[in-house]
Amino acid sequence: RSCSFTGFSTVQSRKLAKSLSRSSVRSRMSLKPPKAYNSLQKGALIWDPKPLQVKKIFEALKKGLNEYLEAHQAELDYLAGRHKDTKRNSRLAFYYDLDKQIRSVERYIRKLEFHISKVEELYEAYCIQCRLRDGATNMKQAFALSPSTKASRESLVELYKNVQECTEDMCFIEGALEVHLGEFHVKMKGLVGFARLCPGDQYEVFVRLGRQKWRLKGKIETDDSQTWDEEEKIFIPNLHEKFEIKVTELRGLATILVGVVTCDSINFFTTKPQAIIVDITELGTIKLRLEVLW
């Protein structure tokens, strides 16, 4: 196998290098990297792209956006039907109010369609860079196994640069894709613990998603109801991070760890609020109830 690459080192590797540089996503797309990716421009360590995770998020995101599109298209069809009936049988003011609603839904549908097309464009560019990086990596490995010559060493240097460029471009696209993930509105619904929860008990719940944090305290009242100092928090979805949930019991100055769990966010990209019940303890004696609306 190594022999088949040695005669191809000077010409075809340079062709590949040129094609990779022409395919650089930053030369074709005006991607402004988010703050988290600014280090790429300074030659710092590059984050390792996660193509499989990005694929899962892309598929979940596209499915959720299409659900929103279908729901608003159904609303538009309903309003359009009423619009025809109202034109014949109702007051002029009501007709114009209905017409305004139709125009508003039409504008929202156009925004959704643009959003979907932008996400698809970014993911297509991501897949191209991923394939180019895989191709350059395979060629680099093949050249490394072949007899060392000046031409092969030059090809290795070029291929190494191309792999780095493709990796950078993939990271930039990941950052651009995160901008289109929307928001998660997380609501606290309380703890469930049956005999484990007693009046007067105090708990602290700590929810983290990447660098985003939410710390809230709650108390079990005498009537078994619960009061919490916060009820809702907005999180910006992240391609790589999962929700980390930590629950501790507060006893005076002491704190007792109840449990730590992680929760994937892939299933949250949907039009309907998602009720989540998380087992905090290993035996499930204490559970945490949350609601997530995307």
Record the strand order, biggest sheet.
4-3-2-6-7
SSE pattern? HHHHHHEEEEEEEEE
Overall structural domain count: 2
Mean of all residue-level pLDDT scores: 82
Give me the number of helical elements. Answer: 6
What are the segments in which pLDDT stays under 50 over at least 5 consecutive residues?
Answer: 1-25, 30-46
The shape, in one word, is: flat
Q: What structural category do the secondary elements indicate? A: alpha+beta
Beta content comes to 15-25%
CA-CA gap between termini: 51 Å
Rg over CA atoms, rounded to whole Å, is: 27 Å
Helix content: 40-55%
Count the E strands: 9
The biggest beta sheet, please?
5 strands, antiparallel
Give the gist of this structure:
This protein is α+β, with helices and mostly antiparallel strands and 294 residues long. It has helices at residues 2-6, 11-22, 25-28, 51-89, 92-145, 150-178, and strands at residues 184-192, 202-209, 212-220, 226-228, 232-235, 243-251, 254-263, 274-279, 287-293.
What does this protein look like?
InterPro entries: FAM65_N, RIPOR3. By secondary structure, the chain is of the alpha+beta class. A hairpin with a 2-residue loop joins strand 2 (202-209) and strand 3 (212-220). Helix 5 packs antiparallel against helix 6. It has 2 domains: 51-179, no CATH class; 184-293, C2 domain (Immunoglobulin-like, Sandwich). It is built from 6 helices and 9 strands, in the order ααααααβββββββββ. The chain starts with a helix and ends with a strand. The model is unreliable at 1-25 and 30-46 (pLDDT under 50).
